[in-house]
Amino acid sequence: MIQVEANMTRDGKYTAEIEFITHEEWVEELQSILAERKSVEGNDGENEDSDGVIDEYDDAEKIRALYREDGNKASVNDLMDSNHFRSIPEFLSGKKKEFKTSQAEELSRELWPYLRSDVLSNKQQYWPLVKSVTIKIPNVKDLLEHIVLIDLPGNGDCNKSRDEMWKSVVGRCTTVWIVSEINRPVSEKEAWEILEKSVSYLGHGGQCRSISFICTKTDNINVDSDMNKEDVKKKKRDSILSRNKVAKEKLNEKFNKQIKIKEQFNIDKDFFQVFTVSSKQYWKKSVLQPEDTEIPKLQELLRNLNDRRTKISDYVTGAYGILSLIQGANNSDMTDSKEEVCQVLENNLKEGLKTIGQSMDEAYEAFEQCLSLGVQQSVDSCEKIAKDKVIEPVSHKCSGYHKVLKTLCKNNGVYKPIRKKGQKRPSERNLNDSLASCMRGLSNETFKKYFPNQGKDSSINYLIDNFTLDTNRLVEKHPEVSLHLTFLKTEETKLKAKLKMDIREKKKEIYNILPKSISDTMRPCYERAAQLTGTDSLENMRKELRNHLKESKGEMFNKAKKEMLDLLKEMKKHIVEELEHDLQESMNQSLKTHNSLLVPDVSEEYEEMKKCYEKLPSSSNAATTTA
């Protein structure tokens, strides 16, 4: 995984930080590679799958990249000799390797052996050991401040730590860019397949709010050269723009047919966009004008993603609230007004919490209903689903499937192959996801209603947005405590923003709990099946999986349902308790604490911050305060 962000220091350097997998993980991977090599050398061809492709990880290439000819026939102890890692002592010490250069080209050369696979090179390459690379670029603050661009591998990784990182990072992406050359965007099957397989991590299991398809090299087009230079330029520009228009139309048609994506998102007109770009023409301007290349549109998209304004707003709001509290403490005691206002606020808080509780109960009941139906359908269909998807799929010959099933059982129900160069990508198999598919399918619409990544009136976030202590109305009636109420309003705003982030993270956990719970129930079975060996091991593994599923299916699906509903209860409890505790504490600080003569005079600071606060886009609802 490669991530690119702005270097916010003033040194003007290009930097890179490489994180390696652990020493123990590489030992485990080597043991698996050598055991598989021994198995292949001594078997009768059982590793061959239905289409004649050896369905294995690209193990030979990993060994060759890191050890060259020394890797042949070597033992794990030999391969872990520290001499092999003299150039990367950070791998053995568990530290990150860092590079810092003045030029981008220089950094690219340094990173080459950590990022690229080159079978023709005799130099040692370290990419099999790399977990992630973070690159920081200077002088791009305008575009990349608070933005991280991540180049993700297709659909996870067979290495557990890299795969967990992949899931975590995908779940935190707010937008997805699919990049493909202009001559094959619609026919780019792999890109659409990866998107389809990743969509649950982006949608209900993530926070993605938009998807963009970026067609590159749009200036690569041939036109008749038997014309004068200006006519050729005009003809080429017209041809490029015409092809761009057709590509956009076809891609939009293709996207509209993506059923699985629509199950996860509330699609609006801005959700899916197509950009037809030419970086070469953006700089040369020989045929296309900058706006024709759509590079400026992409830059504007990045600027709109930048949350600099949100961070500034949070800072100003917080500072203004604290200064309002201090300034208010310098005024007269106003005990009677404070008591009256405090009583009203406590009643407003009580009513607001009651409304939130009722709405959260409605959400719970909606999930309980669809999950109960999901349990019933899962119990009825799980054995057939497991057979067709994993245990005995028709796409694999019996003689070639034992390795896939063995690997799946060793990896707790998940098989993640890596495509070998020049061959089609083997199918990923995930028994836990397959068994959770009925419950997930029946709860998708409920998820879209209550936990959309984009705004919706029925969502839990909308509920938080509409919660208020109604301090604005109280300011009109009690201007003498307007400063105290301003503090309360800013505290309420900060707390609601925090709760919405908490909800965003919690809903990912809620969505992912079904396959996780099923995986936990199936784990003893996976472990037993992984230990089976011998000539009948394939059939014995299948029998083990079938029997366990038949015996535990009712309990397993009801347990998964309960765990999801328990997380919903926890979310409600967290929201209500946070609002009640934090806002009551803020009321106590501002309205139930006696003023002190030791409070400093912050009149000037208060007035300055008030001007900044009133300039914020969201300050139109701010309470009018009087010092």
Automatic annotation (TrEMBL):
InterPro entries with a match to the protein in the record: Nuclear_GTPase_SLIP-GC, P-loop_NTPase
Coiled-coil spans in chain: 535-589
SUPFAM superfamilies, per database record: P-loop containing nucleoside triphosphate hydrolases
Source organism, top-level taxon: Eukaryota
KW Coiled coil (keyword) present: yes
A GO molecular function held by the record: GTPase activity
The keyword Coiled coil is assigned to this record: yes
Keywords: Coiled coil
PANTHER family in alphabetical order: NUCLEAR GTPASE SLIP-GC
Full protein name: Nuclear GTPase SLIP-GC-like
